[in-house]
Amino acid sequence: MKLRVKTIPFETGFTTVVAINNRDALRYDLHPGDRVIVETTRSPMRQCIAVVDITDGTTLRAGTLGLFTEVARELGVSTGDTVSVHPAPKPDSLHLIKQKMRGVRLQMRDFDCIVKDIVAGALTEVELTYFVCAAALNELSLEETSYLTQAIARNGSRYKTKKYPVADKHCIGGIPGNRTTLIVVPILAACGLTIPKTSSRAITSPAGTADTMEVLCNVSLTLPEMRKVMQRVGACITWGGAIGLAPADDKIIRIEKPLSLDVVGLMLSSVMAKKFSVSATHVLIDIPYGRTAKVTTKARAEELRQHFLSIGKLLGMQLTVVLTDGRQPIGNGVGPVLEARDTLQVLRGEPGAPRDLREKSLMLAGHLLEFVGHVPKGEGYTVAKDVLDTGKAWKKMQEIIAAQGAHAQPRLGRHSCVIRATKGGRVREIDNKAIAKLARMAGAPITKGAGIDLHKKVGAKVVPREPLYTAYADSREKLAQVKRYDRILAPYHITSSSTGKN
Amino acid sequence: MKLRVKTIPFETGFTTVVAINNRDALRYDLHPGDRVIVETTRSPMRQCIAVVDITDGTTLRAGTLGLFTEVARELGVSTGDTVSVHPAPKPDSLHLIKQKMRGVRLQMRDFDCIVKDIVAGALTEVELTYFVCAAALNELSLEETSYLTQAIARNGSRYKTKKYPVADKHCIGGIPGNRTTLIVVPILAACGLTIPKTSSRAITSPAGTADTMEVLCNVSLTLPEMRKVMQRVGACITWGGAIGLAPADDKIIRIEKPLSLDVVGLMLSSVMAKKFSVSATHVLIDIPYGRTAKVTTKARAEELRQHFLSIGKLLGMQLTVVLTDGRQPIGNGVGPVLEARDTLQVLRGEPGAPRDLREKSLMLAGHLLEFVGHVPKGEGYTVAKDVLDTGKAWKKMQEIIAAQGAHAQPRLGRHSCVIRATKGGRVREIDNKAIAKLARMAGAPITKGAGIDLHKKVGAKVVPREPLYTAYADSREKLAQVKRYDRILAPYHITSSSTGKN
Prior knowledge:
CATH superfamily of the largest domain in chain A: Nucleoside phosphorylase/phosphoribosyltransferase catalytic domain
CATH class of the largest domain in chain A: Alpha Beta
Strand order of the largest sheet of chain A: 1-5-2-4-3-6
Shape of chain A: globular
Low-confidence stretches of chain A: none
Strand content of chain A: 15-25%
CATH architecture of the largest domain in chain A: 3-Layer(aba) Sandwich
Oligomer: homodimer
Structural class of chain A: alpha/beta
Number of domains of chain A: 4
Largest interface: A-B, 47 and 48 residues
Distance between the termini of chain A: 73 Å
């Protein structure tokens, strides 16, 4: 059937939807959720698959087809043009998703079919939700997780290189200020290793690695741009979202979000697919655990470590997992500019540089150097320390920044306020979630210069009225909000030295 | 924050979605899927809850809020108006859905909370899918099914009466032509029983009870109109969709459709909620089974019967279940006009009336008469037969038709063709699904007069070239399609009498 186009100025961001009048739907036996192929009538012929949504005459007259912005753009049509519409078969993956719901173990080709349909936009949000829910309830086996990982990586762009080994690192997150990547990557690159690092922006945290790196230089590199930087410097720190390495993963994450699901199989495949797609051969996974971290107990961290090791083995990837201290933020600054400041202080060897960030970065870099076989066992830390202390890592970082396109460094928030201790004692813990929330209230990561600068870390002695942290923001209202919520969230746990109690 | 409205001419039919520019989203810390309260700035203040979708500047400028037709209508605003937008808390039911995913047994108040949110449009399609998927994988217990049933019925309109007993019947479907309702209802009403029947339109079948009744009279009654008909005649046969008896059920069904899920707990609560909401006290459930029916084996039918009986007991509803022959369509006609013709022939006692439709209707009506205690055990069939044969049921049906608003009877399809047997023998089975498909190809239910008229039923002797059925349609193309697909679908299974084989 032929219908006249009416564009609807809106992007669904998911499956492509076309709206059709209820009379036309009856006439052509189309039902809500049916799939159709929409084709242009003029050459060059272009087509796309879309899901039918049925609407009444007040929204759309009979004989017209409502096209959302992205479909209209893909087809190159606009209001008044004619397109032809035919029923399309249901995607094969629906049948596989139903099997997964029944608890059937799926094969490599099954996951490939599902992921292909996800990337092509052939599955609706509802259909993909069934897949995610089935994966959550009928847990994915290790084999299935490895199949899904490979399918996600293969159905996306891929960074390839012959300069082996290719090192990579990943932290499962949840610790504010934990910007070791910006120190580990230049150390490794200065040692001559290949390390094509893609990072994420903040979703619910006050800064992602990409947000912090963006303070220093451009991170929105395309795949060809990333290739150029890699050829020139041997390392990069870019925003993964711009590259399209694992597009299916982004859609799966979007489905997990509303219920804040934490499906182990999906999390593993999400992380590993990104390593797979940059051709990593040696990967270090950092799992911080602590009462207010993402992983709350050592037992759970150990369990996750085992999952990672098993999936790494199945994927034929060298993988090492370290469990780290997650009792407090790492470094002093929380928020893009403050975190960038901390990493620069460490790289430049400045006296005020946060020790914990320096030590954790050296430990991770040393571990990776030994793991890839670049230095003998037991010498990693010393080599890393040497590369950092002689300024070689800082030189390398300057090369990376220049290759990606240096930014003028933005300043700290215009306004600030100091939060002081109400009692004396010793800092036992700093609530990661509370600090993250306060830094977001101050405006991070949108306001790059906003955030929290910690003056006291775990173990420090505190006397009453001593400054605990400084909050930076671009408006006084936001600072007032931080002050108000500091009392509610109480991020510092201070115990009086004698009793050891709160 | 205050934003200018831009209306988007489209109805989502599900949750209310508002679109916001990505700069505004960053500025106000809103993420895709976040919930906001949108309020009008002029009095009278109106508000609604909506889910945020984030779009770029080409679709929506910063400072504007995209409102879909239904939200704009609800708020009474149009392009250029100003609204204020605030973050809204996540609905309580999300937490309960997550519990159901973990396998927790939910309570009455939990289901009430979930169903309230479904009806209010507070859950997105993705969120509701998690509920449906969890109900499918962590099966709902009987108690849970009864809680869900009551929650669905209570969170919708309800037909109440004091004229007890209130009889109702329901067929789980899958058998073309099976229009016993149009005969059972007038028989029962002629006996003085209250029977407020609400039926559905065809979704994937060539005619629903509502589609067939619509050939004779208006079926799109509102609840007050239905009340009037009930007061005047004591019975009605209306389209449930117009009344809003169980609005949550429609949304749940919409989520089950893409994967053609058949979740027992959801099916039971769907059927029983509708009985509950018309205050039925005595319900007869008809489960036809056969190789090409919805229920394929007697064992499965028995199992379903037990499920229905148990849930009926829990709901304090008198319930009786009959298993019936589902080896072929019931009656001769398939398609609204043809099915209406069959029922009128039975009601008028015409000699050509289909015997199987007459007998099945008498059996069901007799069973219900005994079940409600209107006649002693063993006398139901005779009483029903008497009411039918003396014309009392036909008189009652005429009253129902008049009360609902009689329609001019539409004619059969303009074109027809006869399909003949290619070999002789005896009809062993008629494929329900194939007949339904052919009738839809002919144009049913949209073209009321389109469909299939069967000349031979199971057990009949057939000689080669003898007519098996006539197809009616409004276009020659559709008839040609029926002819072509008759060979592929081969609806008649004819065995040569001697061997008993195909």
